[in-house]
Structure formats: structure tokens, C-alpha cells
Design a protein that fits this description.
70% of the residues lie in helices and 10% in strands. The protein is an alpha+beta fold. A 4-stranded antiparallel sheet has the order 2-1-4-3, with helices on one face. Helix 1 runs antiparallel to helix 2 and helix 3 runs parallel beside helix 4. It is rod-shaped.
Length: 280
């Protein structure tokens, strides 16, 4: 009965410790994972904005001569060059010189023809609008729209990789920690508990392992010292009781001898008294 209770207690303690350890490791790693994902998303968004702004600036600078000279082929080449970036989904150039304005080359990526870029703020970055100037005069305007779709795809692939690494890290840390704690904490405690159970059954000669130089080893040494003290105390009590029994036996023997002597003396006295009476 005592062994079953101890086993259940040990199993419960081991399980609680394991769950607590795994929980703490999971929370810490998930926190690290969340921070990493947030930083990655922010950095990717910043890099996309900076890259798109650079494209818009380069496009504006490249359009100055083409718009001023009314070179539609040159404008089309600039638009095509901007479209080589897979994130760009719409490029339009507006003429601010001619009245009425001329129809300048405009290009929208396939699949986005009917898209309202102004209202779909979540799917696209805000349009980059650059005013083209020549000698301080506004001669045109460049509008560049960049999609977040490719960025999001890369982001989720990155998140999947981080998530896989996080799971592997949680498992590795948990298994390593549990292995170490079971080897250096629970295994010595199990041996100490077994020795305590044997001693509790009355075997004071049972050995207690105290090989570790840590707190558990000190506990085992203290417990072994207590076992030795109890055994010596019982041995001393046994010896004292044995001596007391010997003294009692000697005392009883002496009492018996004294009693026999008294009885013998009494008989002799009675015989002497009776002989004296007969003589008189």
C-alpha cells in the first residue's frame, strides 16, 4: 500500500514537473517566435516600401526627357522597365503640359485590370505618385502601384520555416531538459525513496547511495547518517536490555539462593528448638 502511494506520488510529481517545464519552454519559444514574425513582417514591409519608392524615383527621373520631347516610345520603355519588377501591378503616366492632356502609355498587370487600387489598401501599398518636373515646371505625373501578394507569399513561407524550427526547438529543449532532470534529479530521488522504503520495513543495514556532490547527494548522506544513528541507538538499547536481563537473572538467582539459605537456617533452628524441648 505504501509502495503504491509512493509510486503514484512520484509519477504525479514527475508528470507535473514535465508539464511545467514543457509549458515554460513553449511559452518562451512562442514569444520568441511571435517577436521574430512581427519583426520580419515589419522589415519586409519597410524594404518593399523603400524599394518601391526607389523605383518611382528612378521612373520619374527617366521620364523627364521623354515627356518633354513627347516621346511616347521612350515613355513606354520606362513603363516596361518598371514592370520588370514582379511587385509592380500598375504604372500610369499623366501629361500635365498639353491641353487637353495626351493619352500616355499606361500598363496594368494581367488579372488586375478591374482593380480599384485606391480602396484595396490591404492588398496593395498606397500608390506612389511622383511629379515630373522640367526646369521647375510640372510636366507630368507618374503613378506606381505595388502589390503585397508576393511579399505575403514569401512572408508565410518564412513563417512556416520559423514555425517548423520553433517546434523542433521546443521538442529538443524539452526532451533534453527532461532527460537531464530525470537522470540527475528523479533517478537519485527514486533510489533514495527505495532505500527509505527498505529502511522503513526494518532493514537498517540497507545501503544508501550518495555518489552525487549536490543537494540530493547531501540529502542522501544525511539520511544515511540518520540510518546509522538509529541503528547504533537500537544496538545500544539491545545491549543495555541484554545487560539488564543478565542483572535480573543474577538477582533472581541470588534471591533464590538467599531464600534457600533462609529456609535451611529456619529448618535448622526449628530442629534445634524441638531437640531442646525434648531434652528439658
Amino acid at each position: 500500500m505504501t509502495s503504491d502511494v509512493s509510486t503514484n506520488h512520484r509519477t504525479s510529481l514527475n508528470r507535473r514537473f514535465s508539464l511545467a517545464l514543457i509549458g515554460v519552454v513553449t511559452v518562451v519559444v512562442l514569444l520568441f517566435f511571435s517577436i521574430t514574425v512581427w519583426l520580419t513582417a515589419r522589415n519586409n514591409e519597410t524594404e518593399l516600401r523603400e524599394h518601391s519608392q526607389q523605383l518611382a524615383t528612378i521612373g520619374k527621373q527617366s521620364l523627364v526627357t521623354a515627356i518633354w520631347n513627347r516621346d511616347d516610345n521612350g515613355i513606354r520603355d520606362v513603363v516596361d522597365a518598371l514592370f520588370k519588377d514582379e511587385n509592380v501591378v500598375h504604372v500610369s503616366v499623366i501629361d500635365l503640359v498639353d491641353d487637353p492632356p495626351r493619352d500616355l502609355p499606361t500598363r496594368t498587370r494581367e488579372g488586375f485590370e478591374d482593380q480599384d487600387f485606391a480602396t484595396s489598401s490591404g492588398e496593395f501599398l498606397p500608390p506612389f505618385i511622383e511629379v515630373v518636373q522640367y526646369k521647375g515646371t510640372d510636366i507630368g505625373r507618374l503613378e506606381l502601384v505595388v502589390s503585397r501578394a508576393r511579399l505575403r507569399k514569401q512572408f508565410w513561407l518564412h513563417v512556416a520555416g520559423i514555425a517548423g524550427l520553433t517546434v523542433a526547438l521546443v521538442v529538443a529543449i524539452s526532451m533534453t531538459s527532461l532527460s537531464i532532470t530525470r537522470r540527475y534529479i528523479f533517478a537519485p530521488l527514486l533510489r533514495l525513496e527505495h532505500s527509505a522504503s527498505v529502511i522503513a520495513e526494518g532493514n537498517l543495514d540497507a545501503t544508501i547511495e550518495a555518489e552525487q556532490n549536490d543537494e540530493i547527494g547531501q540529502l542522501a548522506k544525511s539520511f544515511d547518517g540518520m540510518r546509522s544513528s538509529v541503528r547504533n541507538l537500537i544496538t545500544d538499547l539491545t545491549d543495555a536490555r541484554s545487560r539488564l536481563d543478565d542483572v535480573n537473572r543474577n538477582l533472581e538467582q541470588k534471591v533464590a539462593e538467599r531464600t534457600a539459605e533462609l529456609e535451611q537456617a529456619t529448618k535448622i533452628a526449628e530442629e534445634a528448638s524441638r531437640s531442646k524441648g525434648e531434652f528439658l
